[in-house]
Sequence to fold (408 residues):
Amino acid sequence: MSTDPRLDRLAETAIRVGLGLAPGQELVMTAPVEALPLARLITEHAYKAGASLVTTLLSDDVSALARYKYGREESFDTASGWLFEGMAAAFRNNAARLAIVGDDPALLAGQNVEHVARANRARSRAYRPALELISSSAINWTIVAAATPAWARAVFPELPQEAAVAALWDAIFKASRVEGEDPVAAWAAHNAALATRRSMLNAKRFAALHFRGPGTDLKVGLADGHAWMGGSSQARNGITCNPNIPTEEVFTTPHMLRTEGHVVASKPLAYQGTVIRDIRVRFEEGRIVEAHASTGQEVLSRMIGTDEGARRLGEVALVPHANPIGQTGILFLNTLFDENAASHIALGQAYAQCFEDENLPEDELTRRGANRSLIHVDWMIGGAQTDLDGIRADGVAEPLMRAGAWVE
Ligand code: ZN
Ligand code: ZN
Fold:
């Protein structure tokens, strides 16, 4: 793969578009071992852009599994707090953050669900200070993807290993808009289109959104003083970045007490090693009061049982059905891609920057309806049959999407 020019363009896009890395900035990168060729090219482009130091932390699925096979009982409440404290310290010192993802969606499927949940909770707690700096956009950060063999196998089970990896790389390059000679220009055009959509929604100041489709009738109340985001954004350190490569969404913060009705997921959700299928939930006063899934029900129940905020919404995002990721027709079993194939909602932590006023204190965010949780899990609710209205403060409905397409 190292000779494919698209891999180099993806690395360049990660540094110049995803991070907008500034000269003199440190970079903290995490990557699966299988993504080392991409990590090395990203490191090259980081130093070319003037990075002061690139530190890469590699993860390995086989080692992760060994913990669940052989770890002692008390192992599952342990997290490397020292590492996350160090990452938080780096971010406070203005280091940029880049994650290469390529997780095996079914890695932990056969493991003890309680052990997995406890380990995730311990990790989430330890990671929280660092995550807050990322989710509040204190620094520029981005996520890009690499086609690992295990992920490719899960996405294309019918193909031989090598062909599956090649097919997944093709899809990643297409979705990440690095097929052409000048990906930086392609991203500038895409960011401009998302900015137009964002401005339209911000000008409307809707009180709520109303989704209708097969099995879905959901009213999502929006947070007071919410703002729509999407595409490139400016981090609080003044650097413009694209936090997700790829991205197709415009998104904002719902009010944690104002979601009513029922909704079905339009795609399966790959959550920490388990694929949860056919999610159906019902909300009352912003809180999930019923949750079902045809597979992964126990994982779903544990996920929404993480804390009080895990039962409430922290994000609502709009994606037209016709877009480069949806059009691949591929179920990626990875949120970075699948969430950009369709409109979605996320349970858990809200994004503090999705407000008209910047740097709101925690208690004011809560007053405006921003949810708090250890988790933030996106799942897809939009499809080719989804209609969407914006509900104004006076109760009048305006059509926003019909059959999954923006009403122009
Ligand atoms: Zn989203
Ligand atoms: Zn999200």
